[in-house]
């Protein structure tokens, strides 16, 4: 009887037992609708923290890429962890779903972000969106991984021979204030380049870079986030088919500055084997915040934290303020006037990057850097006819003040700098262009001139200076480029061709947008050819430390030589790639060698100097007047003597 009862119970429970896995499976698909549209395969990878479930993407060329999105590498940095170094993520049980992007790090809404989205009909489009359209949280420290499917299968299938491929870790830009890893999809670069691509989130704005220059908030939290992410890659990327001994870090704009900061940080040593800094350098003045306490105090006042010289109390108050409130109160001024940026803290950054490179204290790996032809034209995209928009000296002064922050307590230094820049870019170039007009007719610049000034000062000259510093050390190869291609089908510049090759525009080609069947942009054959070229150059550099290795790839029909002191060459990356001798030196030398006379060695104008100057002028005037009177009296005496009646002499005696 007892046996029969147990049998009946088992029979009744059997349908329930069989249904449970089915329900779980259906729940997974319903909670990830995009995964259901992408593939029914859910690959699983093993990490040091636990297992993660990803998804498979189908590319337009019928190849497939395995993706793992929003893998946490650190514990959420809120509460007492705010304004502190990140803590590694604790292990989890079960399988973590990694099929959807996670939250953005807290950021303000002042600038829109370009995103590649799929509409309801699964058509890919590029759109400019506000960060407020995405979920944001302090619990944002995660990374995304893209792996060619055959490589991932070789790792997870015990019957196949395992092999690993190079890794490319992308650090996004956004003036240390906005953006996130999700806006840089890595599937095409991974598949076509034969590399594992990793993108990441790191803390931004005050949450990532506020510093009081003491132990209560030393700063550089966003940089320490990046280091922890790179350590996670070293420990785990082999489980995804990546080679931890062959990791290239690359980034654009502020991300490029982050890359070159890792090159000089002792904490980053051994975490990467090559580096690419695009339109950003650690030697740029905007890349380092030299007066962080000023902006920490401003932030505290704006959120009603009591004004106090006690930084311990100040930070205690800021930890209680809502993260969104901290992000809303910050702002970026024109021309990269960034409030919160990395600082020299003696830990992550022992000294200013230029000094560290000059002493040979940097991570000596192959390095590639460069910029776009028209760089900051994108800042002026709201102008319909920039040639008609005049830029006064006062407006130019405001831009230069934000970008260069001249060290002066008076206006004389800035006035001298503005005059020098105006003369170099407006007056001299006006005359050298063949016009015979007077200087008065060349007193104003237009938006095109302003774009050239700001691009040279903020982005191009620092890149060239960085290359020169490394070339002087001559330890590792250094490659310089200028991206000059602009598409007739560019979604931003289609109606404004004067934007040209604008800031960050090369990233659309490196990420393969022309190959991803985007509905509203990059659909020409020329776009696809440029994309193929850049994918090859970037992935070659990741694999070999050389963008054009001799033994590889007949599709690349030029040889890109390293930049050296004796041969300052660079690659002009347009519709056709050409190697040239650097012709940027005239403008670059102006910013590298002449402008520092005003920014680093300011004119003095304090009271003591004014007093000494007054005494000097009065003394000089007195001595000058006295000398003048003495000389006048002497001359008068000489004249009087010359015109006095002569003495009549007797006739000379006759000889005997």
TrEMBL record:
Keyword Amino-acid biosynthesis found: no
Membrane spanning residue stretches: 613-639
InterPro entries in UniProt: AB_hydrolase_fold (IPR029058), CarbesteraseB (IPR002018), Carboxylesterase_B_AS (IPR019826), Neuroligin/BSAL (IPR051093)
Record's signal peptide: 1-25
Entry's EC annotation: 3.1.1.-
Domain (Carboxylesterase type B) ranges: 43-591
One Pfam family here: COesterase
Alphabetized UniProt keyword annotations: Glycoprotein, Hydrolase, Membrane, Serine esterase, Signal, Transmembrane, Transmembrane helix
Family of the protein in this entry: Belongs to the type-B carboxylesterase/lipase family.
Name of this protein: Carboxylic ester hydrolase
Gene: LOC106457375
């Amino acid at each position: 009887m007892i046996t029969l009862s147990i049998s009946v119970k088992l029979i009744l429970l059997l349908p329930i037992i069989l249904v449970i896995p089915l329900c779980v499976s259906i729940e997974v698909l319903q909670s990830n609708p995009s995964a259901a549209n992408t593939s029914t395969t859910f690959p699983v990878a093993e990490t040091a923290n636990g297992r993660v479930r990803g998804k498979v993407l189908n590319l337009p060329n019928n190849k497939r890429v395995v993706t793992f999105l929003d893998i946490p590498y650190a514990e959420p940095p809120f509460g007492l962890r705010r304004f502190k170094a990140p803590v590694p993520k604790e292990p989890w049980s079960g399988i973590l779903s990694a099929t959807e992007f996670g939250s953005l790090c807290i950021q303000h809404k002042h600038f829109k972000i370009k995103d590649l989205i799929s509409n309801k009909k699964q058509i890919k489009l590029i759109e400019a969106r506000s960060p407020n359209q995405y979920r944001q949280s302090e619990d944002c420290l995660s990374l995304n991984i893209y792996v060619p499917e055959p490589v991932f299968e070789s790792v997870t299938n015990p019957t196949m021979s395992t092999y690993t491929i190079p890794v490319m870790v992308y650090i996004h830009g956004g003036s240390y204030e906005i953006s996130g890893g999700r806006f840089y999809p890595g599937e095409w670069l991974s598949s076509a380049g034969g590399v594992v691509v990793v993108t990441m989130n790191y803390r931004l704005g005050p949450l990532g870079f506020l510093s009081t220059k003491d132990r209560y908030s030393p700063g550089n939290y966003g940089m320490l986030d990046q280091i922890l992410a790179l350590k996670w890659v070293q420990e785990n990327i082999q489980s995804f088919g990546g080679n931890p001994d062959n990791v290239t870090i690359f980034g654009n704009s502020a991300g490029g500055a982050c890359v070159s900061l890792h090159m000089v940080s002792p904490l980053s040593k051994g975490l990467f084997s090559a580096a690419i800094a695009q339109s950003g350098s650690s030697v740029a003045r905007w890349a380092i915040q030299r007066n962080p306490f000023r902006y920490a105090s401003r932030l505290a006042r704006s959120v009603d934290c009591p004004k106090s010289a006690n930084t311990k109390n100040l930070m205690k108050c800021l930890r209680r303020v809502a993260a969104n409130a901290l992000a809303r109160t910050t702002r970026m001024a024109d021309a990269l006037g960034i409030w919160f940026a990395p600082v020299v803290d003696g830990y992550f950054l022992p000294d200013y990057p230029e000094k560290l490179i000059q002493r040979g204290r940097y991570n000596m790996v192959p390095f590639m850097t460069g910029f776009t032809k028209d760089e900051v034209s994108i800042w002026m995209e709201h102008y319909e006819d920039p040639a008609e928009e005049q830029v006064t000296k006062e407006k130019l002064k405001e831009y230069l003040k934000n970008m260069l922050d001249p060290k002066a307590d008076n206006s004389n230094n800035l006035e001298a700098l503005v005059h020098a820049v105006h003369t170099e870019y407006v007056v001299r170039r006006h005359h050298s262009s063949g016009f015979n007009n007077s200087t008065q007719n060349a007193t104003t610049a237009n938006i095109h001139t302003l774009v050239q000034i700001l691009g040279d000062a903020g982005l191009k000259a620092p890149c060239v200076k960085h290359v020169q510093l490394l070339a002087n050390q001559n330890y590792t190869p250094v490659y310089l480029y200028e991206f000059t291609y602009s598409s007739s089908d560019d979604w931003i510049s289609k109606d404004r061709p004067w934007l040209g090759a604008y800031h960050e525009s090369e990233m659309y080609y490196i990420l393969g947008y022309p190959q991803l069947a985007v509905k509203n942009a990059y659909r020409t054959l020329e776009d696809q050819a440029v994309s193929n070229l850049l994918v090859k150059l970037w992935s070659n550099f990741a694999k070999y430390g050389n963008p054009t290795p001799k033994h590889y790839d007949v599709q690349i029909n030029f040889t890109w030589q390293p930049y050296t002191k004796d041969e300052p060459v660079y690659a002009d990356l347009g519709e056709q790639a050409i190697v040239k001798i650097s012709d940027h030196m005239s403008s670059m030398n102006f910013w590298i060698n002449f402008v520092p006379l005003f920014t680093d060695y300011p004119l003095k104008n304090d009271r003591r100097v004014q007093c000494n100057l007054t005494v000097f002028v009065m003394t000089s005037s007195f001595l000058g007047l006295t000398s003048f009177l003495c000389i006048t009296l002497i001359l008068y005496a000489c004249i009087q003597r010359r015109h006095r009646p002569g003495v009549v002499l007797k006739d000379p005696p006759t000889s005997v």
